[in-house]
Structure formats: structure tokens, C-alpha cells
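> @MW can you paste both from yesterday?
MW: sure, first one:
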Amino acid sequence: MSPLLQPIEQIASADILACTPDTPLNEAARRMAEQRRAAIVVLGDDGRALGIWTEADALRLDPGDTARLACPVSEWMSRSVLTLAADTSIHDATSLFRARGLRHALVERDGRYVGFVSLSDIVLNQGAESFLSVRRLDSLAVAPPLLLDGAVPVREALAVLRERRFDALVVCCADGGYGMFTLRDVLFLLAEPCAQEATLETLCSRPLLAVPGATSLLQARQLLAERQIRHLALRAPDGSICGVVGFADILAGIEQEFLLELHTALKERDAALLRSRQSLRLADKVFESTLEGILITDGDGTILSVNPAFTRITGYTADEAVGQTPALLKSGKQSPDFYRELWSTLKRDGQWQGEVVNRRKNGLLYTEHLSITAISDENDALGHYVAVFSDITRRKQAEERLHFLANHDALTGLPNRTLFLERLAEAIAAAQAGKERLALFFVDLDRFKLVNDTLGHAAGDELLARIGADLREAMPEGATVARLSGDEFTVLIPGIAGVEDAARHAQRVLEAVADETELAGEEVFVTASVGVSLYPDDGVAPETLLTHADTAMYRAKERGKNTFQFYTAELNVRAIERLKLEYALRRALAQDEFELWYQPKVSLATGAPVGAEALLRWRHPELGMVSPAQFIPIAEESALIGAIGEWVLATACRDTRRWVAEGLFAGRMAVNLSGRQLKLGGLVDTVRAALADSGLESDYLELEVTESVAMDDADGGQVGMLDELRALGVQLSIDDFGTGYSSLAYLKRLPVQVLKIDRSFIADLSHDKDDAAITTAIVSIAKSLGLAVVAEGVEEVAQRDFLAALGCDAAQGYLFGKPMPAAHFEAYLAAQRR
């Protein structure tokens, strides 16, 4: 279905900002400014709209007139509010917006308001990408911009905006740069009247986003959507600002382009009708969708006619294409068998559809989605074929990029753990079938933490990228090099002749890593420790081989580093030590050795605490503090995680209930759930009991599951359990989001409310384009699904500001507070309250 024919309800925001008629104007302005809304709906006691108050209405007010700002909004609202039926098409809604010059409308279904739609929503959902991509900004009739000096007081700027009826002005700053002052800033002045004495330069948004006139309307629309702004400045060739473009200008451009395309289509249709009355049925087919390429052939495959979209996509004009065959577009990327199957299906079923890689006139390849239909005449004799296709190159590239990011490490470009385990399983199956051996190398850099701590994370990332490239270069064809996490790499080599062959490759791994290199202006000598496991000697399962190679690597560390070790039976001594730790872990719960530490979670909008995360700690009487990374895996494997999880839930609920009762805590307390807890069963009863025993209201509790655990639901039972937990009133969130491979279709089924961005993306946010892009994508995905977003591991102000600008809701990390014992956290809460 064309985007313009879709019902308006599909693009409307279900979150309607509303207020009562007696709400003071300054309070209405504050709500609109905080939620970045252009309008607020005024509802009566019966829930029906009495009017609407917009940014344009706000401009009529003087921020210094405190008495008038205290007046009820009903005295200044616009009485007329456009209400659209939920099934109104986007096309019809667009027509109403254009005809009435509107910017907002309510959406109603069965006598109930179900959404709110704005001019921005209309422009972003026109589905006119092909038009927008060829139309340039300098083709629009844009009025000269309103420019004011940055030293002008804000109150004078307001008077100019009222007089000139502009919704934005450009601010000329003292340093030669530009800023933007819009109606949204007027809302801030009404909410904070004291700011009216400031100058434009102190309140405007900087730097001004300016683009050249050659920028397409599609690029402009994408910039407005990505930056969450409503105006772009138009930059002249000499660098000056020559105009300001908003959503309304783009909508006008779309309208003009649609009229031009419609005129062209109608002209060609009339010409076809004049050539032959018998081509009427074909004309209906040809002009069903003028945005898609269409070609018509006779029964022998000779092209009879093409539409303008065919020319735009392929580069061939009608004169060049008519008389040729579709082989004109062949790229050589499909085999002869592909075309034999295509024609076989077409002759049998009368139609075929699928994806084809073709070549444009300029030689560039493109991917198209193609539908071919055989057309019979009135005597049921095959007379023509109609091919309708659309260029899906960009979509395919985006899909491939997302698939790559889901299966590869963003820093090195190497396969990640998910893809490596898949390839390892495939290699084992191939080795088993061919009765071959393979070698698995587990590579861990020596003293990498020292590099990070002394030279910084940027230097550490540079080193990891170099080593990843060196390993890939040094390994033979057919080998797989992957980065599992941190400074851990793996290398898989199939077809190993024997132990001696594996040893030679292990030495090459050491030589590829061992080198003196310069990082951050310092000479650093890097070495690695390598563990080797062989198939089938050391195991036949992927996880077993990986575990044994990891064990052997630790033996190499113990042997002095910069060496390799094979896995041997004697390394099972480590397993004994593991058993000892497991025994101590069983004793720890009985002897009250566990502690809960708490890390605050704050709002990025206000900086105020909005909750916390409960983190498990083990204070061993002899070993001291034992890392959760060391004992949690043991707890999961030994089924102790169930008892430990119950203790964590009970303790977290009890502490939270006490702090709530004392007026210290607001928000939600987050508790992590392991995959084993979800699979053990009884989790819903455990949570219900913890809430009942502590007396804690369920809306104070948040349960976190990691992305990999959330996606691992082979039998579908996990979704049911999460639904039951959600029914209790607790909030559910996905932790470490972005580190695994999520199916967005499956994610939509999960009853979660929050996505937590993994700290690995946040750490390098300010200087890694990939991490910034992934973080931006995650926030965008979350917002599109109506989910809140929390960032983990925020340690720098730049990271906080970047996330806040994206619209990320909350964050936790050392910038706001480290994990702390319960007593210290209680003191922290008390200090925050003061």
C-alpha cells in the first residue's frame, strides 16, 4: 500500500499533551518546553477538546507580564481544533493541512481521542523519497531570513517575530558564527520569565545547522528528523545565510513535484490512449504506480514502452529502451539457471516476483524488487508481459550494514562471538564429515589493561584495531579471526595436519601480535598469551573447544606470557579450584557473606535521581571481594543462582521499601535476572513473594534481562513469563542492548519498557563514529517502539551531553556515582534530598 493511502492513526503520536482550561499559561508553556511539544490540547471535564494553545499563540504574550502569564490557558487558546477520523488517509490529511494552513490535528476513533498528528509527522511520512531526492533546496521559494545581532535583547527579538510573523530568526553571534531562535525558545521564556532580559546570543541554539542550496529535499528532511529540529539554514556560496527552510517548505515542494509528475504521467497516458484503444487495459497496469519503474514487452520479450520512473532508475530513455529486450539491464550477477527458473515459473503461474541485481546505463549495479505479470488478450492468448520494479539498493545496503554490525565487532570489523560460534559449529561439522582436524586459538593480550590505564582508551582501541588487522593478515586463507570481547581474540584454522602444524600456526599468531609500536606518542611492546585446543582431541562441541582453549591460555599466562600452550588433562587442576570456589559459594549464602551495592540512575533532562541498580557483591572471609564475573557463571552452572537470586530480590525490595518509607527514594530499583533464573521456573512466584514480604509497591521494582537472554526463547515460554512479571506491575528492561543480535520483530513482542545501552558503546562515544552511530540507532529504535532508554557506563560530561541531545532518558555511571554499599547509598539519597 502506498504510504499516502495508509490511515493517519499509524503515524499519530498516542501521547497527547493536554491540560485543563484553568491551567495557567506559564504552566502550559513549561510543559510544552519540557516535552518539546509545539502545542497543548485543552480538554474539558468530559474529555473533549475545547481548544488548542500553540507556539504561535505563545508569541503573542510578553514574558514580563507575570499577571497575564498566570491567566488560564482557556483565555488565549485557539477555539478550533481539527479532528480527523482514525481511518483518514495520510493523503486526505495532507490536503486538509495544506488547505487550512494547519500544523496540528487530533485523531479520533469511536468517539475517543487516540493520537495527535503534526505537520512534521505529515512531511516525514509522505513516502515521496524519489521526488525529494531530485529536488534541491534552492528550487524552493524561500523568503530571505530574518537576521538579528546576538547582542539584541530577547524581548526586542520577540517584538520583531510578532511584527514580521516569522517562526524563526537567525542570530549573528559575536564570534562570527550563527545561531537559531525559534518559537520553541519563546516557550522557555514564558516558563522562565527571568530569561527575557538576556541577549539572543545567550539563549539561541548553536551552532546553526546550515546546508548548501544543492542539498536535496530528502537530505533536508532526514537532517530535520535525525537532529530533532524543525528548521535548517540555507547557506549561499559566499558562506552567508540566505534563507531558513522548515517542514512547511518541504511539504510545498512535495506538492509541486507531485503535480509535475502527475502532469507527465497523464500526458503519456493520453498519448497511449490515442495510439490504440486496445491498450487501455495496459495503460491501467502501467499507471498503477508511477513511482515504480514499469516496462511492457510483447510476447517475445521486445520492449514496447517504459514509464518515466524506468528512466530515472535505469538511466535509459524510452527511445533507447523501446525495441530492445530486458537483457539491456543484465548485470551478469544472476546465473543462467536463475533465468530458466524465472521463465519456468512465469509460464506456469503467469507471474513471478523476486530480487534481481541489474546494471544502470552508467554501469553502476543496483538491486531491484521485480514483479512480472503475463497479460493475455480477450482471446486468452499471451500477448504482453508487464514488469514493475523498484530500486531497493539503499534498503539492501542498510540491511547488510545492520547485519554486519550485529555479527561483527564495531572496532576491528572482525566477527564477534555470535558469528564466531556459528562458524566454529560449521567448521566442526565439516571436519567431522571429512574426518579432519581443526585448531582453535584463544588469544589474550598481555598487560593490555596497563595500556588502557596509562595511555587511555583511544590508544587501547587503536592497538586492538591494529592487532585485529595483523592477525587477519598473518593467518592462512580459510581461517577465521574474531574478537570475542575486550582484548580477547580467537583464531579458527580448519584442516590442521597435526600438533606440529598447529604449533607453527600458534607461533605465527604470537609473531603477528608481538611488535614494538607507537601509541599516543609512546613506544609500546605488545605480546600475547595463546591457548590451543584441537578438534576432536580436546572436544567435539564448540563451547567445549572454546573453554579448553581459554583454559590453556591461562596456563600460558602462568608460564610467563608471550607463549602458547596446548590444552592437556593436567589443566583440569583448574577445575578443582573451580569446585572449591563453588563450595565456598554455597557456604556464602548461609553465612551471610553477600552484600548488595547500589548505583544511582539519573535523569539526563534534570540530573535528578530516578532510580538505582542493585549489584551483587561477595565478601569472602579469606579472598576478600570476589568479582561477580568470577562467581556468577559458577552460580548459574551449579543452579545456585536460584537461591542467590531470591536473596538479591528480597534484600533489594526490603532496602527500597525502607528508603521509600523514609522519603529518600523515588523511581525504580533495578535487579538483574540471569538466563538461568528465567529457565529454572518459579520466578514469578519469587518476585511476588519478595514484594509481599517487603511491602514494596510493584511499581518501584524494575527487572533487567540481557539482550542475549531476551532473544534466546526457542519454545516461546519466556515471553509468557515476562508477561506474567509485567502483570505484577513491575517494569521490565533489556540490559546490555546492542551487544547481541536482536530481531526487532521479536523485540516488539516482549513486554519491556526500557532499553539499556551497553557501556561498550558509551565508552568511546565521543571519538568513535561507529559507537556514536550505533548509540543513535538504538535510541531511535527505542523511541520508535515507545521504549525508554538508559545508558550505562557514563563517565564523561561529553558522553552525557551527547546522550541528552539524542533524547536518551536516563543514565548511570561514574559521572553520577559509583556502586556503593547500602549505608553509603542511603547517605547519598539523604544528601540528594537536602
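MW: second:
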Amino acid sequence: MSGPHGISRRNVLIGGLGAAAAILAADLTSGPAGAAWAGPTIASDPAAFAAARERWLRFYLPAGLDLADPLVAAPAQQLVTTARTHLANIDRAEPRLGVFADSPFTSRSTYQDSQRVSYSTRRLREMAQVWAAGALEPDEADAMLTAIQEGLDYLTSDVWSTSGVRFGDWYDWDIAIPRSIHEAVLFVYDALTPGTTAAVVAASKHFTPTIPTSGTYAAAGNRVWFCDAFMGRGLLVDDEADVIAGRDGLVPVIAWANPDPRPPGLIDPSTENEAFFSHDGFYPDGSFVQHGQFPYIGLYGTSYLGSIPGITARTAGTEWEPATDILWEWVWSAYEPWLFRSRVPDTVRGRQIDRPLGSRETGTSFLNGLISLVASADETNRARLESLIKAELAYRGDPPTADMVLANAAVASRILADPDIVPRPPLTGTWVFGVMDRVLHRRADWIAVLAMHSWRMANAEKGLVENKRGWYQADASVLMYTPDIVQYDEGFWATIDSYRIPGVTTDTVARQLYPGGWANEYHNPSYWAGGVTAGQWGAAAIDLAGEPPSTMHGRFSRFFFEHGYVLLGAGITVDAGRTAETTVENRRVTTVSTGTLTVDGDPVDASGQIAGAHWAHLAGTGGYVMLAPHDLTVVKERRSGRLIDINTGLTKPEAFVVREHDYVTLVLPHGSASPSAGYAYAVLPGASAATTAAESTAPRYHVVARTPEAQAVRDEPSGRAGFVFFTPGSVSLVTTDTGAAVALEEGDDELTVHVSDPTQESSSIVIDLAAEVSGAIALDDGVELSVTDGRATLTVDVAGLTGSTKAARLAWNPPTLLDLVRAVERAARACAAPPDQEREAVQSVRHAQGGHRPAEALRALRRVLDAWAELRPSPEIEAAIDLASRLVARVE
């Protein structure tokens, strides 16, 4: 007995993995279809449908599939093992209660109940794929086919029938069940008894007669899945109307989003459903939104990669083929940045963070989708894509093809074996996704992800039954991903102290589990959330009011540089009787992050309070430098939890497993807080304890400003400084007429300025620069420069940019040490410093000019100036301190 496309099980016997594998005629590099399609077809020709079904099948089981290749054999064996488990679990009871014994359909009301139906069809699909691959001995194959046939018969006579009644989650009936059951039928198409396929499709038409055209059902990822299901069922029964409906249904979502001008936080989804969900989809800044108000490239975004390559493969060259060229823009702007060491950060995975397989599952979805695109890529995109794939496969363990679609495992094997394909170097840079209130900063060995919320994005999706403790996940949290790639997996969100998320300042009031409900999540009532990118570095900030019952309000900024990032907070307040705290780190102990903690040079083995801490180091993670000494709370604890505790809709056995993890938590207590409460610290990913201690003694990061109105940090050796202005104001050499984010880089003969409007409410921003600018080298569109008496004014058109950045490169004459001497003299006069102190300060400048360690001389000068400022603060002293900081880059 053979599978429907002629692969003999006797020739392709995966069971022992030692038998010879059949090598079919077509070259794998010709793509999932196995052979090029000859050209447009007559849609009414039955041969066109048969050819499309063949290409669809080849998408999963391509001709030429070499199961002797270990990288293909590994996922094949996974699939065989899974299918055998399913076969052993078939419900044999009389009367039958379900397809599988552990998923009975006795209860028919809840989300869990409809999930049991969709899980059952997914299992049948896996069994059918194994059968189609010819992967079993004859007797086992016959038993597998019989079980599939009987399972389909049972479903089409009961829950999945033309008289079937919905229960539980609409998603199961409209998307999950049809997509998996259609593909189960595809794999055993020619071996099914007459009428089975028609019965499956008739039930599909019964439950979903049309593709929705409004609301969340018709938006972005959901609509792609609907269209996939329609095209699939149409091909199974030669129904051109369904195929065309699927093709045409894609048109609104294979395009840039066209949102209502109001942010979702100001739209009532119960009365303006269409306007609310119009925000779903892709944006030119790389953002992807689903459910109106959540960053979701890590779940619903995968629907595009999971469906469109298969859709185009089965319709290639026909009049049914949709136009999908825009997908390549999304690959590079929306997908690639978020794939780090074969994982996708939780902050863009919505409520999926409480799923059993964690970020690896999403990373596998990304890679499966990207690999599926290789065959249809043009030469330029294919070269870039293969380079990316080869780089990411290196982080997937052994074998790197585990959990992959068999066809993709074969392509991955070819890519890995091809010496002409060079792995893409680690992606570095700073991305500001203004539409979805996210900032991503990438270096070669680590990334940092800032999650915020505003009127545009809600704080955290909970749905009806999920993410029950997502209270603070987007409250300016900064999650650091390192070579410790399992850090956020294995039940992290079920076991972590959910009040203490890294980077987050909380009112420590007790919270209740989220009760559930759709589209009623909390929005921070501010437009100020966003940032500015200067390519390889950047800055971001948020004006944040906590979700009630929290009463915390504060303004928080983050500055991302080459060697680390800096977090500032100012104006932190809470109501009387409350206290506030900021979590610096909350790290799960793993084989990489060992939990060994050192604070100010001393090992810390237990929980406790440390007064006036300067630095901390966590082995296997990195260093933490207090840019102003701060009391530190250390918590070392073992925590336990189950995924069912935070997602009460889960039904899989792993959701009920009690997981235990050790955590090391570093917290800055603020007490009852006040307008002056705040913090300033730097995170140095991967740094050693010695490096952290040295950085504490002579920090490279200088806090230029930290007030509720403006915050700024300079990375002194690089000459780079980030500024965030919550209100109009002046800091250092930058003055702005409105709220803005500015990134400034001082070079030898160039001054580069990057500007954005994080509020997305301004039409223009005017930036005055106290600098000797002589003219423009390059100006982005919408940027104008005027120079008067050596002062430069930039007028930046930011209307409609959704927080994106504009830049200007200016020719200038940078300040010198002579300018600093004059500034010090003015500062000395302003505070009436004794002559000997003035001489000492000026002498420090001289040392910087010709000494052995000029940067140290400037830092020594700053210590003198800081002492003056404490005794008698003045603008002149602040200007001298700032200029000394700016000149470090010019003397090192």
C-alpha cells in the first residue's frame, strides 16, 4: 500500500531510521511544488484542482524528500512517535465519546470543550501526514489509515457535521478545526471512502459559510487563517467559488493597515467594533497589531508566515494566486528584528506567553515560515533569507530541525550543507516600533526589549482565561535576552513574582487575578510613550500612570548604547499609605545564569537589605551599576507554579505540572515616594564582576538630567547622548519647543541629530542647538535647518510619522578644552569658589589636555564641580559639568 503521491512505505521506513530512503525525481531546490507550474490554468478544469492539490501536498512532502538525511529523519521520527501515541490513544469505547480517549466530547460548552475537538483534528492531521509519507510498516499503516477514516466518520456524524452546533471558542470552529481537518483529508485524499471529503467540507461550509468582513474576525492574522481554510476546502472539492473567496479575502490584509485616526484606547469596541479593529495589521515602521491594541508579531503575525507560503505554493501560476510581494517588506522590517537565537521575545507574543512551549515555539514558527519562502524568493531575497536561516539554525540545538515541517527540514539541511551560504552576522541596532509602543535594542550577544503602553496599546492581553497575572508586563519593563536562551521558557511566567518585572516601578498594592473579558484591558492615559533611534543606539521614555488599584505615577526613560543600557526614573509618586519599588532584575536560575550574586565586591547568599549599594553582579547574566548609590533589596527564593494558574483554559497535561524555579531579584525601594523619588542605574549584559566594579568607579554613562520634565544620558566615550523631553525645555545643548526624543552624536566635524515625536500628536518639532553649526551635510525629508549667529535651529515635520525618526547631519566646530577652561572660570565666579579650588579645577583641564589619562582628569574635574553645585548650585556650574562630560569623547 502506498501514500497518495506514490511513496512506498516499504521504501521509506522511518520506524527504524536505518532503512533506505526513497529519493524521488524532482530537485528540492525547485520548491515545495516539486516542479514549476506551466502557466495560467482554466479554473473550471478539474485538472487544475488536482494539480493544485498535488502542489499543496508537495508543500509538506516534496518530491525528492530524503529521509536518510539525519536532519530530515529527526523531525520525521518525532512525527512518527507522535502519530503512534495518537493511534494508541484512539477511543475504542462503546458508545464512542470522542476521537481520542483522553479528549471526550461529553461536555459541550466551554473553551476547553471546543479545544478538545480542534486538538483531535490536529492529531488526525499528524497521523495522516505520517501515513502519507509512507513511514510505517504495512500493518501499522493500515491501522493508522483505519483510525483516520473512522475518526473522520465520527466527527462528520457528530460535532463536525451539517447539523453540528458550536460551543466554546469561535476560533476552533472557524479556523483551528477546518485548517487541520482539511489537511488531514489532503494527506489521505485518494485512500478515503467515497463521500468523506465531501462530508468534511460540507461541515466546514455549515460552520463558516462566508469570510467575515468586519471586526476582529476579519482583521489581520484571523482573516489570513479564514482565507487559508476557504482556499483549502475549495481545492478539496473543486469549488472555485471558495478558492476565489479565499484569494480575494486576502486583499485587505496583504496591505498596510488603514487605521481609524483615533487610538484604540479612545474607541469603545462594543459600539465601534470596525473602527477599533481597523488598527490590526502591519505598519511601515515594522509594527504589527492584532486585537486592536496589542503587539502580536509573535502569534497572529505567524499566521502570515504559516499560511501565505502554502497558499502561494498551491495556487502558483494560476488565476487563483494572490499578490503577496509586500510580504518581503514585512519579512525584513517586522519579522527579522524579533528573531533572536531562534527565539521570539515574549513582549510581542501577547497572551501566548503562558503557553507550554514558550518562545521556542514561536521561533520555530518564524523559521518554518521563512524557510517556506525560500522557493518563491527572487535572487536577492533568497540570498539574504538563506543567510538569515543559516545563522538562526545554529542556535536550535541538536538537531536544529527538531519540530520542523519535513519539507522545511530538507531545505534547512541543504542550507546548512552549502558552503557558499554564509551565516548572516548578528543583527545589531535599535528599532522603535512607535505604533505598538515597543523598542528593541540588539547587540551581537544580547538584546533588550522595552514594553510600554499608552492610549495606543493596552498593558497586557488577558482574553477570557489567559495571562491572569499580566499586570505589569508593559509598564516600562525591559527584558534582557542573552545566550541563556531558555530563561523565559519552562513556566517562567507561572513562577516569577509577577509584581517584580525587570525595569518596572510598582505601587506594591495587592492585585487580583484578571477576571477576563475581551477588549477591556487598561490603557495608560498618556500619549507619551516612544523613542528615537540613531541606528545602532537610541532612547525611549514613558509618562506612566499605573493600572488601578495602583496609584503609582512616574516618568521613566531608557537609553540604549553599545555596551549596555541605562534606566532612569523621576517624579515617582504613590497615594498616602502606599509604597513604591523598582525591580532592577528578576532572573531565573539556569545552567547559564547560576544565581551567584556579588554586591559591592561581597558575595550575597541570602535575601536581605543592602544600604547605599554601588554595583551588583549576577554570574552568567551581567552587571548592574547604580549611577547614584541606592539602597538595594535582594530576594533569593524558590518559587512554584503551574501554567493552569495563569491560563485556566489550558487542557494539555503539561499545563498541570507543578514547576519549581529559583530566582534572584534585585529591588530598589522608594518608600512612600515623593516627587523627588527616582533612580538611575545601568545594565551591562555579559559583563564580569571585575568590569562591573571598574564601571562603578569610573562610569562611562553620565546622567545629564533626571527630572519629571526631562531626562538625558551621555555615553561619554562615544560622544552619544539621548534626551527625552516630556515638556518643552533645555538640557545641555538641546532646546525643544514641545515633547520630543532626541539622539545627539558629537563627532570631530559632524553633529548628527535624530528627532522623533513619541506622543505622535505634534505636527512639527523645533530644536535649537547651542552649537557652532556652519551648515547641513544631509537632511532627511521634512527637516529644515536655519543658522543664526552660530546657533542652529532644526524644524522637523513629524506629522503622520507614528513616532518614527528624522535625522540631520550638520557641519560644526566642536567645543575645546579652552572652552572648558572658560566655563570653569565662570562657574567659579558663580559660586564664589576659593582661588585654590578654581586653580585645582583649571589644572584638571590642563591635565586633560596633555596628561596620561585625560578622561580621568575630566572626571576629577567633575567631582570638584559637583561639590560646588552641592554648596551653591547655578546654571554656570551645570554648564561646566555638562561640557566636561561632553569633552571626554574628544580626549579619549
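> thanks! Confidence is low (pLDDT under 50) at residues 1-42.
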